Amino acid sequence: MKKLLLWLVPLLVLAGGGYAGYWWHYRPAKADAAAYRTATVKLTNIVQIISATGTVVPEDVIDVGSQINGQIASFGVDLEGKPVDYRSTIKEGQVLALIDDAIYAADVASSEAQLEQSKAQVRVSEASRDQAKARLDQAQLDWGRAQKLGQSRALSQADFDASKSLFEQAQASLALAEASIGQSKASIAIAQASLLRSRRNLTFCTILSPVSGVIIDRRVEIGQTVVASLNAPSLFLIAKDLKRMKVLVQVNEADIGNVIPGRPVAFSVEAFPNDAFKGEVRKVRLNATMTQNVVTYTVEIITDNAELKLLPYLTANVRFEVARRDQVLAVPSAALRWFPPESVVAASPLSASPGTTRTASDTTMPSTSEASTAAPRGKGAGEGRGGGGGEDRQGRSGRPATSKIWVFTDGVLRPVTVKVGLSDGSLIQVESDDLEEGDVVVVGEVSASGQPAAASGASPFAPPNMGGGRRGGR
After folding, report:
1. Per-position pLDDT tens, the chain of length 474
2. Is the Cα dihedral 146, 150, 154, 156 positive or negative?
3. With respect to CATH, is domain 60-99+205-239 assigned 3.40.1620.10?
4. How far is CA 106 from the centre of its chain?
5. Where are the domains of the chain?
6. Rounded to two decimals, what is the model's pTM?
7. Helix 157-204, helix 102-149: angle, nearest 10
8. Could you give the CA distance from residue 65 to residue 78 in angstroms, rounded to a whole number?
9. Rounded-to-integer distance, Cα 282 and Cα 302, Å
10. Are 464 and 451 in contact (CB under 8 A)?
11. Residue partners of 11: CB distance under 8 A and separation at least 6
12. d(CA 340, CA 445)
């Protein structure tokens, strides 16, 4: 009996160990939920956007300058009776500033005196003309008598020639007097033009507002000398209506084809991080700029600023809507990049059928751009897109890309093949008959230290949460 027990006990131990090994290898693939980071399948709206940075500026800005040189003597007053300054509200024709006008007032006085002198010269020329006419009349009479007498004993040849010369001289003097009158009248016109210019320069000493609006910049101080040379010096910057603003955005040439006038735009500013502002694309300017071999186009966006929250020159983070899917199933993008360990895949009864066991390197992982252009054209996938509905520019042809996600069902991991649609960078549209709203999908693992582990197939140098994995719950 003792010998039998000595042989039986080792045999039982070996049999038990073999059975345990067999059970361990072929047991159902139960997973500990605490070892994975999970997320819930949502029914939500997916919007593909283009992000860019721009500057908020007033829709109409007037730069008020000076056409003359001089020293700023004083400022005008705004509608509240205060000196014109930053944020002053002014109306059209209101005085903004006064330039010292002493020199220009002296020019006006000099031009007025010159005009009076020219008028007096006209009168002198007219008197000289009358005098020349009188001499001409006398010379004409003398010349007439000389012609009647002729060359005889009563009139010598010398007197005859003298009468003729005096007559001709009188005619020339009259013509000269009349020409002098014309010259004097021309000098009056010159003096009048000079006076007009002097008076105009004098009015330029008073800087008036060309429009009604708000002063957003005052660029001079009292006592400062402004010099108008080739370009008029800028004194004030006036915004006509701060309730109408526009955003100037620089968009890369690779994305400019998706920016269409009339499309809605959303943007935010750091001054009001909790507020979302809306606008509309008005135009795409054609004068592209190149910086370090990067071509960008300026896009104008108009927006309503009735509450006057937006201030000029705020930096705006703009989001252009390219494509939209309303009320579709979506999961975090990390769910498409995660693949369980090979031991779990091999032990799972759902993955034992031929062709279903795959490694992380074999899994189809579409990029964001591929996923965003591979949406199906059926109902529920193509409806609700902004701008009249329809597929995005590459989604018109080809079948949607497919991928695999892993779903928790009763503590068991099971793979589900899905059709990949539009992506907004964090969530991605998926379609499958085996997937419903509320299903739990795995987006990553939790290491022994309790920290999120890197997704399978990811670079060991990459941050553990890259790819939107942080949106999933544990």
Report:
1. 666 666 676 777 777 766 666 555 555 445 555 578 899 999 999 988 889 999 999 999 999 999 999 999 999 999 999 999 999 999 999 999 999 999 999 999 999 999 999 989 888 888 888 888 888 888 888 778 777 777 666 676 777 778 788 888 888 888 888 888 888 888 999 999 999 999 999 999 999 999 999 999 999 999 999 988 777 889 999 999 999 999 999 999 999 998 999 988 999 999 999 999 999 999 999 999 998 999 999 999 999 999 999 999 999 999 998 888 999 999 999 999 888 876 666 555 544 333 333 333 333 333 333 333 333 333 333 333 333 333 343 333 344 588 889 998 877 888 999 999 888 888 999 999 888 899 999 998 876 555 565 444 444 434 444 333 333 333
2. positive
3. no
4. 48
5. 27-48+323-471, 51-57+249-320, 60-99+205-239, 103-198
6. 0.58
7. 160
8. 18
9. 6
10. yes
11. none
12. 9
Structure tokens of 353?
């059928």
Give residue for tokens 């996923």.
Answer: 371
Give the CA diameter of the chain.
201
Tokens standing for residue 431 = 């379609």
Judge if 51-57+249-320 and 60-99+205-239 fold alike in CATH terms.
Answer: no
Pick the CATH number of 51-57+249-320 from 2.40.30.170, 2.40.160.60, 3.40.640.10, 3.30.70.20: 2.40.30.170
What's the burial of 231, exposed, middle or buried (CB within 10 Å: 0-12/13-18/19+)? exposed
**Any idea how long the chain is?**
474
